[in-house]
Each structure stands twice: as structure tokens, then as C-alpha cells.
Amino acid sequence: MQTNTAKLRGAIAERNISKAALAEKIGMDRSTFYRKMQEGGGNFTISQAQALASVLQLDREQAADIFLSDKSHKRDIGNRIRT
Fold it and tell me: Residue 32's CB: how many other CB atoms inside 10 A?
């Protein structure tokens, strides 16, 4: 699962929440969150993506655009991301 970190950063900025606060809200150590963002976000788990989508109040399409770079999987996996 590949993450569009630019769009994720944009969603974080739009919600006016710090990355440290976001990491805390999803139950992730902030250094782990920063590392995952630096590495392109490719290793966010589905449950972490769901938690991020929930905290950031993303709809399914927004979540799919951020967390799924392979468009062929957006329809199938995007339905699993509950907001």
C-alpha cells in the first residue's frame, strides 16, 4: 500500500493538527509516524490508514487518493477504509 504523503500532509495542514498530535491520536509513537512519513508512507498498515482517515475526517475517496496509489485497487480496497 503506497501513501501519497504530499496529500496526507495537506490533509493534516487543512485540519490544523500537528503531526505529533495526530500520531498520539492514532496510538503511534511520534518518531514512528515521522519515519513512516519520511519513507513515503508505504508502510502504514491498513488499520493505521483507517485511524488516520478517521481522525482527519476523510471521506472514502479522499482516503483512497491518499493511501492507495495504484488506482486499480482503489475501488476494492477503498471500500474497506471506513471513515
Answer: 12
Note the Cα 42 to chain centre separation in Å: 10
pTM over 0.85: no
- Encode pLDDT of 13-34 as tens digits: 999 999 999 999 999 999 999 9
- Is residue 82 within 8 A of residue 67, CB to CB? The reply is no
* Residue matched to cell numbers 491520536: 25
* Calpha distance 11→21 (Å, rounded): 14
User: In degrees, to the nearest 5, what angle opens at C-alpha 56 toward C-alphas 73 and 26?
Assistant: 90
Residue labelled with grid coordinates 519520511:
38
3-state helix, strand, coil in the chain (%, to 5): 65, 0, 35
Q: Average model confidence (pLDDT) for the chain? A: 85
Domains, in order of start, for the chain: 5-78 (1.10.260)
